[in-house]
Design a protein that fits this description.
Layout: H1 12-21, H2 28-36, H3 50-73, E1 93-94, H4 104-128, E2 138-139, H5 150-171, H6 178-205, H7 240-247
Parallel strand pairs: 1-2
Helix pairs in contact: 3-4, 3-5, 4-6, 5-6, 5-7
The structure holds fe (ii) ion (2 copies).
Residues 64, 117, 161, 164, 191, 194 line the site of one fe (ii) ion (FE2).
């Protein structure tokens, strides 16, 4: 008989998390998220379908795609020829503009992110077919940061990428189809590569970040963790409700679909 696996001991990461826990949450970004977030609808495994989950993911991908494409191209994905119609309420995207980016690595990172998120929108819309929801109204300036300079761009990119990773991870156990789960795993891996790159740039450029919620694990210089992992070195996951609490400020008329 094999030995019972030992519970992981509290290592340096736990110590760092405890240290982070002492940071004042009433910071600019933390306060903004807390103040603007509203109570989300209840989601449970019994009544949520794969279509519901994919449409929830599509709302998040619309948000990421609009953010990066405004930052890189000064345009939203609709203006770039991507279909954004569907069920629910269509809306304009406000608050985005081209960011003055400098340096080959940073510029190429932003360009590739813009391409990837646009492609994720197209992929999910293709998977959903006639069930795809429309791009809802989005306010990219909900927190008052994101586009004035590289530091703001990295701050908001970090928030979106870490939220994206945790959203796919949190939704995975709710997915019924193995095909959908397999694709979701690959999108999650893509988001994790995005997050890893952005978290490194945040550290290299010295961007101060604030906790999005009590689960958030901050990269340097505000925190000590290059990777957004828990004490078992597993990716942080968030339930749809926890994700909604973070992203709702960016959707002034709410998300489209059943998870909102
Ligand atoms: Fe994405
Ligand atoms: Fe991403």
């Amino acid at each position: 008989m094999r030995d019972e696996p030992k519970a992981p001991t509290a290592g340096p990461r736990a110590t760092r998390k405890q240290a982070l826990g002492t940071l004042a949450v009433g910071t600019v970004l933390g306060t903004a998220f807390a103040a603007l977030g509203t109570k989300p609808a209840i989601v449970n495994a019994q009544n949520v379908t794969d279509t519901d989950i994919l449409n929830f993911a599509l709302n998040l991908e619309y948000l990421e795609a609009e953010f990066y494409n405004y930052a890189v191209n000064g345009k939203g994905i609709g203006e770039l020829g991507v279909a954004v119609g569907g069920s629910g309420s269509s809306g304009q995207t406000a608050g985005g503009k081209k960011v003055s980016l400098s340096g080959k690595l940073v510029t190429e990172t932003a360009q590739q992110l813009a391409h990837d998120e646009l492609t994720h929108v197209q992929l999910l819309r293709q998977a959903l077919g006639k069930d795809a929801v429309a791009k809802p109204a989005i306010n990219l300036a909900a927190l008052g940061v994101g586009f004035d300079n590289l530091m703001q761009f990295l701050l908001l990119a970090r928030a979106f990428e870490d939220t994206g990773v945790s959203a796919y991870g949190g939704a995975a156990p709710l997915i019924q189809s193995k095909d959908v789960l397999g694709t979701a795993a690959r999108i999650l891996a893509a988001e994790a590569e995005h997050a890893g790159n952005i978290r490194l740039l945040v550290g290299l450029k010295g961007v101060q970040t604030k906790p999005l919620d009590s689960k958030d694990v901050l990269p340097p210089p505000s925190g000590n963790n290059l990777f957004s992992l828990d004490d078992n070195a597993l990716a942080i996951v968030r339930t749809p409700q926890e994700v909604l609490a973070i992203v709702k400020p960016f959707f002034p008329n709410g998300l489209n679909g059943t998870i909102k």
